[in-house]
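Figure S4 source data
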Amino acid sequence: MIKSFLMIGQSNMAGRGFIHEVTPIYNERIQMLRNGRWQMMTEPINYDRPVSGVSLVASFSDEWCRQNQEDTIGLIPCAEGGSTLDEWAVDEVLFKHAITEAKFAMQSSELTGILWHQGESDSVNGNYKVYYKKLLLIMEAFRKELNAPDIPIIIGGLGDFLGKEGFGKSCIEYNLINQELQKFAFEQENCYFVTASDLTSNPDGIHIDAISQRKFGLRYFEAFSNKKHVLKPLANENELVNLHDARTKTKAEKIYIKSMDFALGKISYEEFLSQVMQANND
């Protein structure tokens, strides 16, 4: 049975890391829900915008598969760039859509966790004062609607690069939102906080860059697998990223990659056949 994870929040959960800046992750045991079917994961996973890119869930899932050799992971992408907490309220479209997608996925998978990252859009105008209460209503409703009262919820913090430059300059209260996110995770059952400390951003000053998304995903996995808060960067983050980059591809993964190269016009049909034959013989 596929172990599935619901991806919710705003753009840093959807992913805006530049795809060309990191080694792609292809893993036949990581599936994503697209057009109502489980398909082998490719990035961008959460295609909420044409600028969608690398998110934290690829490395989260790849690390899960590395440590659990028999498991298959399913990703349910429902994050929406720029969304405020009010837009995730229980009577709003984003909440309803995520519930619908999750319930559909649960017909062929075991819903195993909820991954949340949101707050940049609420880091102004004193929104932190009501953030905890609103988030509590949302998360309680998710658990109730999905009949999953004890499902773990992993909550990521906001980056220290916010409030300084680019689009992130307006996020002047991000530290106060971070305090509310951490307080929420500390006080609620089966809820764990993951720090964004030392992560870096794209030039826009608001979106976590690709290499940092890889590290963030490893932190999310650490929190989920050990059921504990991750309050500082992992000591071996760089080594783990390199380990994943160096993983040998399976035959199915190699053929999948070559199929995409051919479909995108990167190789000829003859080259495609030759490389598929080579993958079959490896």
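Figure S5 source data
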Amino acid sequence: MTAKIEAVDENVDRAANRSADKTTGAKILLTGAAGFIGMHVARQLLERGDQVLGIDNLNDYYDPALKMARLGVLQQYSNFRFVKADVADQDAIKRLFADEKPQRVVHLAAQAGVRYSIKNPHAYIQSNLVGFGNILEECRNHQIEHLVYASSSSVYGANEKMPFSVQDSVDHPVSLYAATKKANELMAHSYSHLYGLPTTGLRYFTVYGPWGRPDMSPWLFTSAIMEGRQIDVYNHGKMRRDFTYIDDIAEGTVCVLDHVATPDPSFAAMHPHPGSSRAPYRVYNIGNNRPVELMKFIQTIENELGMEAIKNFLPMQDGDVIATFADVKDLERDTCFAPKTSLETGIGRWVEWYCDYLKLFCKGS
């Protein structure tokens, strides 16, 4: 089954062959390698010739078969290796750093999902707090050149000032998931300040695209529409999201990894803001900078499928926010990167991938 699923991406074989003779790049540890964002970031690093050591605990938050399929794509690259490990396992992470001696770290492993954090808070404490603490400590012990880690747009919480800026206060999270991501930023700053560890946090905004998660709205909407089931539309559809295509997210992450955090000479201690510091520390938004109404998002999927959704309008869910909108000026200024994929293009690629994946999955069952 895995071999069939790998064939969904027509460029995988060519990209793997291109990378075969380019293994002279940096050695990068990437946590959450079997995850949605992790897989795409790993591919960009592999294609440019970096050596990537991927780790993941392959938990069953959603079907591990999808995670294994993503790993199947990455394992076609000669400069990729995978180790099954849990970032919350202190001894395992300590051994991994000691044995492998990575130069840089991209930390994407986390317990994802806003709504699930209400049902299972302990999973978030273990993975997002204990796990991140283990990564920070080993980065410090091994003089890592740069730690880039996943934060989230959810840290903006009850803030209604739009667009969200990294200079804004983020002291009012509305879910435990968001609170753990804010905590990650604070933990990273303490290590940057105390030990000079360069760290950069990335606040990702509503990521979608091929190889996405089954618990995310594109998958939930697409599968329900195709199967004639109703879709749940929260807050009666009166929500806006800064939907950001996965290739833009991956490219931005790699750009930031190359732009090692340094102390900000313009940092004003009398008027501090959360995005920079006297320490080698940065936080950036990565979003499309063009929020879209939820109903337009659904309509774009309907247009691609040529089918209409059966909509079940519901009130706002606990832990959700009305809108997200990324101010990406700091990211553009420092890295010259800006997301560029339109919603129509991104949804077209998503639907094409999903239909191909579904057909291959059914054949392999």
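The two ends are 7 Å apart (CA to CA). The chain has a mean pLDDT of 89.
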